[in-house]
Design goal:
This protein has 141 residues and is of the alpha+beta class. It contains 4 helices and 9 strands; from the N terminus they run αββαββααβββββ.
């Protein structure tokens, strides 16, 4: 058994290490209710403090980049609001679905494996006044 698998199977008071990590990450992300700083990525997308922290904690810059390419390429000037839902399956495969905010699917991407530590999470993309999108946590809207 690999060391990572051994660590994930450890439990503390009935809670696995991966569940404990998820809880800690979610607790850190709940404090974001706006953004004091904004960060521009190479695609021109603006990231809030909360999304930057999500990427740091979860190592998910790949998801922001992948969906940023799709959003900027397909939906620029077409959709003002897009919800990016990340869902991880038990086998560590995952799916990212883009919706229009009214539960209408715009796009879906499947991945064979991921190390994204949360079972599911959403990031919102809002078209902004500079002609690009701001990616934010729902609590930052």
């Amino acid at each position: 058994m690999e060391r990572k698998e051994e660590i994930e199977k450890l439990t503390f008071r009935g809670v696995s290490a991966s569940e404990l990590k998820e809880k800690e990450i979610l607790e850190q992300l709940t404090g974001f209710t706006g953004s004091e700083n904004f960060y521009k990525d190479f695609l021109g997308i603006i990231l809030t403090d909360g999304v930057k922290k999500l990427c740091e904690l979860c190592g998910c810059y790949w998801a922001i980049t992948d969906m940023g390419v799709i959003i900027m390429g397909r939906y620029l000037n077409k959709e003002d609001f897009i919800v990016m839902n990340i869902k991880v399956n038990d086998d560590k495969s995952c799916k990212i679905v883009l919706e229009d905010g009214n539960n209408h699917k715009l796009y879906e991407q499947k991945y064979d494996s991921t190390d994204f530590p949360l079972k599911e999470y959403s990031v919102w993309a809002v078209f902004n006044e500079v002609g690009t999108y701001t990616f934010m946590l729902p609590s930052e809207y």
